[in-house]
Amino acid sequence: MRIKRILAGAFALTMAFAVASCGKSGGSSSESKPQGGKELDEEDKATISELKDQLEDKELANKEIKWMAHYDINPSEGAVKSPGLELFEQKYDGKVKWVQTTWNTRYDDLANAVMGGNSPDFFPASDMDTFPKGAIKGMFDPIDDVIDLGSDLWASTKESSDNFVFNGKHYVAVIDVSPNYVCVYNKTTIEQNGFDDPAQLLEDGKWDWDTFKTMCTEFTDADNDKYALDGYWYVKAISETCGKPLIGLDNGMLVNNMSDPDVEKVQNFMYELGKNGVMFDRSTNGWQTRGDGTTGNGLGDYQTLFIPVGLWGIEAPLATTKPFGDMEAGEIMFVPMPKDPDSDTYYISSRVDGYNLCHNAPNPEGFAAYMSCLMVAKDNAASIYEKTLKEEYKWTDEMYEMRQRIYQMAAEHPVFSFADGVSAEMDAAMLNVSQATMLTGGGATTWTECVGEYGKQVDFIVKEANTKISDTPTN
Question: Which end of the chain is more exposed for a tag (fewer CB within 10 A), N or C?
C-alpha cells in the first residue's frame, strides 16, 4: 500500500505542477522574447506616468534585467501588461528579458546558470518553494544591500519579508500577500441543484465545513459522472483552513505541525469527506482532472460543483476561463475556502507575491529599481487592474468585491506553508503526507495512520534542515 501511495502521489502532484506552470515543455532554459500581449491604453499609461515622481531619479547603468521562471512577466497573447512593468519601462527605460525554463527543470537550470557564471537577476518566490533551501544552497543573495526594507515604501510588507530571514538577512522582496486558492463555482450549477449561493452563505457566516460537506455529498452522483470536487489543489486548500500549515516557520526555524490538534481535526474532516466519494477519481484519468486536464473542466458543463484554484485561473482572457463557464453571462463566481464551524475565523492559505535576487546577479541595481516600481504601482494603480479584470476579462462587480475581501482576509489571517522550500527529501515525504486522507483510487488512509508512518521521518527532515539554517553562513 505504501508504494501505491507513493506512486499515486507522485503522479498527482506532478500533474498539478504541470498544469500550474506556464512555461513550455523544453528541457533547458533559453532567453525568449515577449509574445505579443496587450499594451495599456493611453489613459492608463498617463496614470502610470504620474507615479514616476515617487521613484528615485537615476540612470540605470544596465537597463535590462533577466528573469528566470517557467512563465514570462512580459504579457502573453491576450493578456494585458502589468502597471509595474509599464512603470519600469517609463521611468527607467527598463526591459525584462525572460530566461525561459520549465517547472520541472527550473532549479537545475538555475543551478547551472549560477555555477556557470551566467546568473539571471531574479527568480519567483511566489511558489513558496525557494526558502530556506535557496538560501542554504547559495542560489540566492540577500536583498538588504540593494533594498531598504525599513523605508516607507516597503513598510506595508516588511513584516511579511521578515518570514524569509536567513542568518540575519532577508531573501525575498515581498510585494504583496495573496491567497493561494479560492473556491470557484458556477452559479448555474448552484441554482439548478437548489443550493444556497456560497457568496451569500459567506455573508451570513454559514460558509463552513459542515455546509461544504453537505453540498458536496448531495451533489455527487457517480452514476451520472457528477463529482463535487475536482482540480489539483483541493487537498492543501482544505487542510490550511484550520489555520496551520503542515510545515510552518517559527522564529526562523521550521516546525512540523502534523501532530497539531487543529491539523488533526481538519484532516479527519477531509478523510470523512473523501469517504463519501465526492472527488473526481483522477486515478482513472491518468492522474489528470476531468477531460484533458484543463483547469476548470467540469464547471462549465455543470458536472463539477467546486474547483479550488488560484485566482490566476480566472484572472485571464475569456478563452482561458471558458472551461469554468460563461464569464460574460455572469456564471463564474468564487469564495474563500470554508472555515471550521467551531471558529469565527476564515484562515487563508497564502503565498507572497515576491522575488529572489539570484546569486551573483549581473544587475542587482536594475532588480531593485523594478521592485520599487512594483511597490509603487501596487499601492497607486489598483484601479488599472480593476479595469483590466472588468473590461478585458469580463469580471462582475461582485467578483471584484469578493477578490478585495479575500485579499484582506489573507492579510489578516494568512497561512504560509514552507513544505515546498525545504529539500528533496521533504518533497518526497509530502507527496504522501499532504494528500493521505483524500487520495483517490483507493489509497486514502486515516490521519492517525499517516502520522504513524511519516511523522518521525518528517521530524528528522525538519531537524536536519534547522541544523543547516543555524550553521550555514551567508554568502
Answer: N
Amino acid at 219: F
Write the DSSP string, 253-293.
EEEE-TT-HHHHHHHHHHHHHHHTT-B--GGGTTT--STT-
Q: What pTM, to 2 d.p., does this model score?
A: 0.83
Region 22-177+352-411: CATH code: 3.40.190.10
Contact 154, 161 (CB under 8 A): yes
- Find out whether 239 and 181 touch, Cβ atoms under 8 Å: no
4-35 confidence digits (pLDDT tens) = 333 333 333 333 333 343 433 334 455 555 45
What is the full DSSP assignment across 80-119?
B--HHHHHHHHHH--EEEEEE--TTTHHHHHHHHHHTT--
> For the residues of 121-186, what is the DSSP string, one character each?
SEEE-TTS-STTHHHHTTSEE-STTT--TTSGGGTTTHHHHGGGEETTEE--EEEEEEES-EEEEE
Write out pLDDT tens, residues 206-227: 999 999 999 999 999 999 999 9
Count other Cβ atoms within 10 Å, centred on residue 292.
10
CA dist 312 to 21, 120, 181, 182, Å? 11, 25, 9, 10
Dist. CA 76–CA 223, nearest whole Å:
40
Provide the CATH topology of domain 182-348+416-471. Answer: D-Maltodextrin-Binding Protein; domain 2 (3.40.190)
- Nearest CA to 279 out of 232, 334, 342, 236 is that of 232
Q: Cα(first)–Cα(last) distance of the chain, in Å?
A: 44
Residue 303 CA, distance from chain mean position: 25
How is residue 88 written as a grid cell?
519600469
- Cα gap 359→338, rounded to integer Å: 41
Half-sphere exposure of 39 (CA within 13 A, CB side): 7
Percent of the chain with pLDDT over 90: 83
CA distances from 296 to 11, 179, 194 (A): 19, 18, 22
CB 437 within 8 A of CB 3: no
Annotated domain spans of the chain: 22-177+352-411, 182-348+416-471
Helix, strand, coil content of the chain in percent (nearest 5)? 45, 15, 40
Contacts of 425 (CB under 8 A, 6+ apart): 461
Contact 185, 299 (CB under 8 A): yes
Domains 22-177+352-411 and 182-348+416-471 share a fold: yes
Q: Record the cell numbers describing residue 225, joined without a space.
A: 459522472
Residue type, 427: D
